[in-house]
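Subject: two folds for Thursday's group meeting

Dear M.,

Sorry for the delay on this. The cluster queue was jammed most of the week, so I only got both jobs back this morning. I'm pasting them in the order they finished. Each block is the input sequence followed by the predicted structure tokens. Could you check whether the formatting survives your parser before we put anything on slides? The first protein is the one we discussed after the seminar.
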Amino acid sequence: MSVILCDADGVVLDRRTADTDLESHLDRVLLRPGFSYAERHVGTNGIGSALEGGGPAQVFGHEHYVEHLEDLACAGIPIRHPGTGRVLGVIDLTCWRRNSGTMMAAAVASIGRRIEEAVLVHTGRASTCCCRTTSWPAGGPGAPCSPSAPIC
């Protein structure tokens, strides 16, 4: 399994992989830091599809647009700023297709939420929306919260 962090343009910022064979394959397909996996460059994939769709994406084997990704499975989800809702990047899990499972989507969603929570803590609770990252005040992302609203 590989955990891949990308910016809002789909450029890989960091990749962590324990499987050396998978790491070599990801290097060969240029799924490594400095390369973009936006759909306009690579077609359907977990990173680009999450960015294009604005939500979670899973892509297995032959669902990938390019053939050299057909042995892989991936699940990606956008990371949003908890105060503004702006997409900051994407977190993606990629593994060999034969090792994929139904929990990939749940795992990447959980990792994405944890990153958003960390962004909330890092930016300061007072400077962002005081509502949970999964719900917004009536005015939408970035709208002021009422003084009686609970802080996350």
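Second protein, same layout:
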Amino acid sequence: MKHTKQRGFTLIEIMIVIGVIGILTAIAIPQFQQYIIKSKRVDAKVALTSLVQLQESFYTNKGNTYTADLENDLACKHKGVCSIPTPGGDVLSLDEHYKLTVESVSGGADPDAAALLAGFTIRATATGAQKKDDEKECASLALNSRNQKSAVNGAGEDTDDCW
């Protein structure tokens, strides 16, 4: 009787390969997810810089005042700068990862025209899946009429890592 040599992999070899793949996956997936979250901050940065430009144009054309009405006065949706999924609803960044609001430079949401005479701050606050970013680093990014950039982490502390 002739013995032939078996070809193939042993069960131990297959289990080692599966273990190595599992370890690599456990390391790679969280890093990839963090990279995706970080890359979506560009959505906020584009929205903020575009809205500051629209505010300055409004200031020049409408009598030396800024506006808190992104939807109607600045027409940001019509100009391709923001998204408003429901009429009268929240104003979101173009890819809808951030909620956009206008504050007076002295602080406070929903400012009136008098409060905006001194200047404005446009804030982008993470929404949806992007809220995972605020747990660690960037809960919101802001840009004001003096071109000063700021960011706040999930604990409410200022951070320099977002811009």
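Two things I noticed about the second structure. The chain has one domain: 36-152. The chain has a mean pLDDT of 85.

Cheers,
T.
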